[in-house]
Specification:
By secondary structure, the protein is α/β, with parallel strands linked by helices. The chain is built from seven helices and ten strands. The chain starts with a strand and ends in a 5-residue tail after the last strand. The structure holds adenosine-5'-diphosphate and magnesium ion.
Length: 225
C-alpha cells in the first residue's frame, strides 16, 4: 500500500468555534492504482488531499505513506517527503508567473540539488513528454489553460514521485484541454505512476479506475455505477 489513512479527522478552529471537516476517514491506495475521490464543493476533498500530500497535518488519526508513518513528522521532514514522494497538480496550476515553462518545471530539481545544465535538460525532456516542446521559453501568461496544466504536470513528475496528487485538475479547463489532461494521467498510470485525483465531476471521476465518494467529510468506499 502506498497511502493508508486510518481514522483521519481534521478540525479547524475559528476563535471559540471548532469546525470538524473530516470524520474518521479510512482510505487506502495501492501502488499503481488510479483512483478518484468524488464529492461536491465543500465536502472536504482539498482538506483530505492536503493531508495525504503532507501539506497539512490531521488533527487525529494516522497517515502511512509508502510504509512510513508520517503523522508525527515535523515540517522539515514533511517537506522532504513531499519532495521525494509526491507530485502535485492543482486546479489553478500554481506556476510562477515570471518564470518560463522550462524554469517552472526545473524548479523542484533546484531543491533536489541538481546542477543547472542537467536541470534544464531534464525539464526540457519533461516538457517534450507533455507535448510542449514549443512552449519552453514561454511564461504562464503566454500559454493556454491546458498548456499551463500540462506544464504543471511536467513539474509534478520531474522528480519521479511515487504518487501524483491532483486537486480538480480539469476544474478550470475547457473539455478538450481537460481531455488532454486525462489522457496524460492515463499514460502516466500506464507507466506505473499511482494517481489520486480529486474532483466534483462524475465524468472526470469515471476516467479513473476506482472511485470513492466524500460527502460532508465522510468518505465512503466504491461508488456503484
Ligand atoms: P472541497 O475541496 O471539497 O471543496 P475543502 O476541503 O476545501 O472542500 O473545504 C471543506 C470545508 O473546510 C469548507 O467548509 C471550508 O470552509 C473548510 N476549510 C478548509 N480549509 C480551511 C482552513 N484552512 N481553515 C478553516 N476552514 C477551512
Ligand atoms: Mg477543493
Amino acid at each position: 500500500m502506498i497511502v493508508e489513512c486510518i481514522d483521519i479527522c481534521k478540525s479547524f478552529v475559528h476563535g471559540t468555534r471548532t469546525d470538524q471537516i473530516l470524520f474518521d476517514v479510512n482510505f487506502s491506495l495501492d501502488a499503481g492504482e488510479y483512483c478518484a475521490i468524488l464529492g461536491p464543493s465543500g465536502s472536504g476533498k482539498s482538506t483530505l488531499m492536503n493531508i495525504i500530500g503532507c501539506l497539512d497535518k490531521p488533527t487525529s488519526g494516522t497517515l502511512i505513506l509508502d510504509g512510513e508513518d508520517v503523522s508525527t513528522r515535523n515540517e522539515n521532514q514533511l517537506a522532504d517527503i513531499r519532495l521525494q514522494k509526491i507530485g502535485f497538480v492543482f486546479q489553478n496550476y500554481q506556476l510562477l508567473a515570471y518564470q518560463s515553462a522550462l524554469e517552472n518545471v526545473a524548479l523542484p530539481l533546484t531543491y533536489a540539488g541538481i546542477g543547472r545544465k542537467q536541470r534544464e535538460e531534464m525539464a526540457a525532456e519533461a516538457l517534450r513528454k507533455v507535448g510542449l516542446e514549443h512552449r519552453m521559453k514561454n511564461r504562464p501568461s503566454e500559454m493556454s489553460g491546458g498548456e499551463k496544466q500540462r506544464t504543471a504536470i511536467a513539474r509534478a513528475m520531474i522528480n519521479h514521485p511515487k504518487i501524483l496528487l491532483a486537486d480538480e485538475p480539469t476544474g478550470a479547463l475547457d473539455s478538450r484541454s481537460g481531455n488532454q489532461v486525462m489522457e496524460l494521467f492515463e499514460a502516466l498510470n500506464e507507466e506505473g505512476v499511482t494517481v489520486l485525483m480529486i474532483t466534483h465531476d462524475l465524468n472526470i471521476a469515471k476516467r479513473a479506475k476506482r472511485r470513492v465518494r466524500i460527502y460532508d467529510g465522510i468518505l465512503s468506499q466504491e461508488v456503484e455505477e
